[in-house]
Amino acid sequence: MLTATVHPMAVVDTNAKLGEGVEIGPFAVIGPQVTLGNRVKVHSHAVITGKTSIGDACEIHPFAVLGGTPQDKKYRGEDSSLTVGAHTTVREHVTMNGGTEGGGHVTRVGSHCLFLAGAHVAHDCQIGDHVILVNNATLAGHVTVEEHAILGGLSAVHQWVRIGAHAFAGGMSGVENDVIPFGMVLGNRAALAGLNIVGLKRQGFEREQIHALRQAYRLLFSQEGTLQERLDDVDKMFPDEPAVQRIVAFMRARTDRSFCVPRSQA
Q1: How many Cα atoms are found within 13 Å in the side-chain-facing hemisphere of 158?
Q2: Are the beta carbons of 35 and 16 closer than 8 angstroms?
Q3: pLDDT by 10-residue block (mean), the chain, 266 residues
Q4: Which of 9, 92, 134, 249 could anchor a disulfide with 153, C-beta 3.0 to 4.6 Å?
């Protein structure tokens, strides 16, 4: 068994739970309700507080603050927690807040994620595996980000928005509506700008799958009929294509927001 290595200048509450091989640097602060999995590395000056669980082999860089109280005026001190999956890297000055009663009391972050400097995850966000937030990307409360999505630097996502799997938001985008899986959005008040083809190729999607997604995209966002009618047509046309059906299921699910659509060419 590998015992935890704690720098003598660190402040670690005696009630914190430390896994095997944990490393904690100088001036780091670890609160009483914190659980660190095996081989977690916490660099100097990082703060992990609240009811926070960090998965195995995560790395937390200097001046990150994880598990702070929600930045929500409705928060009244109710139970609040943050869960971060294994093998996730959190770079400098990243902040992640715990959950509120309105979101089930928990903020969840998946495994193998990467949060670059200055990124922010607000209360009650639900983030899947392999998600990347580039420098200063920010999520408002109750945002859902599905697996393999990438949010570019200085992008901002409105509360309650859903970002679909393998989606991409360009740098400095203001995302105020749901982004379909595999979609790419750009711009201040972001609009859909096609599919995330580069991301699809990097993740090993076959040419036939990408072709089907392109066909479905063109039909979904054509000018004929209503969106509901076009969605029904796509559903019938591609019943056995999992990637297309992922979009269909996403768009049929209950949401509090509209969808990002292509900008009008008029």
Answers
A1: 16
A2: yes
A3: 92 98 98 98 98 98 98 95 99 98 97 98 98 98 98 98 98 98 97 98 97 98 95 98 98 96 80
A4: 134
By the 8 A CB rule, do 65 and 47 touch? yes
What is this structure's pTM?
0.97
Catalytic (active-site) positions: 123-124, 141
Return the pLDDT at 264.
Answer: 83
Outline which parts of the chain fall under CATH 1.20.1180: 201-252
Query: Which pLDDT belongs to residue 235?
Result: 98
CATH class of 5-142: mainly beta
Out of 1.20.1180, 1.20.120, 1.10.3470, 1.10.150, the CATH code matching 201-252 is 1.20.1180
Buried-exposed string 96-122: b where 16+ CB fall within 10 A, e elsewhere = bbbbbeebebbbbbbbbbbbbbbbbbb
pLDDT of residue 136: 98
Which tokens go with 19?
């896994």
In a 10 Å sphere around its CB, with 0-12 CB exposed, 13-18 middle and 19+ buried, how is residue 236 labelled?
Answer: exposed
